[in-house]
Amino acid sequence: MDSLTPTPTHTPEFQAPLEVTDGQHSALIDDTLALLNNGVPTQADQYGLTEIGRWTEVLRASEKTGLAKIIQELTSLREQLTSDSIDSHTLAETLATLGAETSKVADDASSGYGPPLAQLGKLLIKLGSSLSR
Question: Which superkingdom heads the taxonomic lineage of this protein's source (predicted)?
């Protein structure tokens, strides 16, 4: 291949939706609550970025409505945390929006997920508030 030959494109194969059990949902919520209960991270570590990635994939695979804004904010959060300079005001707004959207989802959640999701929403809003000071 010479330098003038276009790079071949790869068409991804069909992927079946991600199957997530109730136990995995509960573990993901518990892991995230444990991470955030330690306070505002001083830097983006691999554990936090892994949690953001896990949530993004689970929410994308979900068939529930009303998750697009959360996915968008998670993507924004990942970008902010991996950038060279973190703007605490923007990060605070993102966390507060994530909290508000999570609280909305908690109101409609079934299978006992409402209370832990409501707790997660409140915690995200609290972290956002602490950053904006």
Answer: Bacteria
Choose from 15-29, 38-52, 72-86 the range with maximum mean pLDDT: 72-86
Question: Two tokens at 127?
Answer: 């972290």
Note the pTM of the prediction, 2 decimals: 0.74
Nearest-angstrom CA–CA distance, 60 and 92? 24
Spatial separation of the C-alpha atoms in residues 125 and 108, rounded to whole Å: 19
Q: What angle do helix axes 46-61 and 68-82 make, rounded to 10 degrees?
A: 160
Q: How far is CA 36 from the centre of its chain?
A: 12
Least reliable range by pLDDT among 34-38, 64-68, 73-77, 88-92:
34-38
The two structure tokens encoding residue 42: 């001083």
State residue 129 phi and psi, 5-degree precision.
-65, -40
Q: What is d(CA 88, CA 93) in angstroms, rounded to the nearest whole number?
A: 9
Looking up tokens 């904010």 gives: 73
Evaluate whether 71 touches 56 at the Cβ level (below 8 Å): yes
